[in-house]
Specification:
The complex is a heterodimer of chains A (113) and B (114). Chain A has 113 residues and is mainly β. Chain A is built from no helices and 11 strands. Helices cover 0% and strands 51% of the residues of chain B. The chains are: A mainly beta (113), B mainly beta (114).
């Protein structure tokens, strides 16, 4: 069974630029999560989708971050404009359903200069 | 406010040793406590998890000890191997025993020397 796929794996941008990350969850997984992992810290949930609906986006900085999961499968996370403090690894995870084990992708490492 | 406090930040043991990683929490509504293992360049992977109705859970060389009254839980790795060298995260959630809304500790970098 293929795992959670993410791209790109690395991205370097300058502050005030925009960037987008893509996630393809495990086939059949209805729940999708985006986490931000700053160096030296644990992952922090940004947004959770159930199919194509948002379950929880309470920790998403909505003035600059946006995410969508239009067809209930793939998802994109966008940052516009980026700030220096957005430098982090962005992890996507998926689960069969709400409350089930979360499986993480390898992450996208973002560096904002 | 950090809801799950993890210690130590780093740990070095010899092969065969028993590293112990500790976590403490404040929110008594937490009802699911997983441990994740993360290798460099990889995402976290679920290692073992416990719910507060049991005090201990073993899976292979990994054991979680849970102390509900002290609001603490710990991970023990028996007969540690160099391949166990990774960063370990404890986490907790409040969603009816499932893994939603996970709150992670800051992680412990474990090094097992041969």
């Amino acid at each position: 069974e293929a795992g959670v796929a993410q791209s790109p794996r690395y991205k370097i941008i300058e502050k005030r630029q925009s960037v987008a990350f893509w996630c393809n969850p495990i086939s059949g997984h209805a729940t999708l999560y985006w986490y931000q992992q700053i160096l030296g810290q644990g992952p922090k949930l940004l947004i959770q989708f159930q199919n194509n609906g948002v379950v929880d986006d309470s920790q998403l900085p909505k003035d600059r971050f946006s995410a969508e999961r239009l067809k209930g499968v793939d998802s994109t996370l966008k940052i516009q404009p980026a700030k220096l403090e957005d430098s982090a690894v962005y992890l996507c995870a998926s689960s069969l359903g709400r409350g089930e084990t979360q499986y993480f992708g390898p992450g996208t490492r973002l560096l904002v200069l | 406010q950090q809801q799950v406090k993890q210690s130590p930040q780093s740990l070095i043991v010899q092969k065969g040793g028993i590293p112990i990683i500790n976590c403490a929490y404040e929110n008594t509504a937490f009802d699911y406590f997983p441990w994740y293992q993360q290798f460099p360049g990889k995402g976290p992977a679920l290692l073992i998890a416990i719910r507060p109705d049991v005090s201990e859970k073993k899976e292979g060389r990994f054991t979680i000890s849970f102390n509900k009254s002290a609001k603490q839980f710990s991970l023990h790795i028996m007969d540690s191997q160099p391949g166990d060298s990774a960063t370990y995260f404890c986490a907790a959630s409040t969603n009816g025993g499932g893994s939603e809304k996970l709150v992670f500790g800051k992680g412990t970098k474990l090094t097992v020397n041969p």
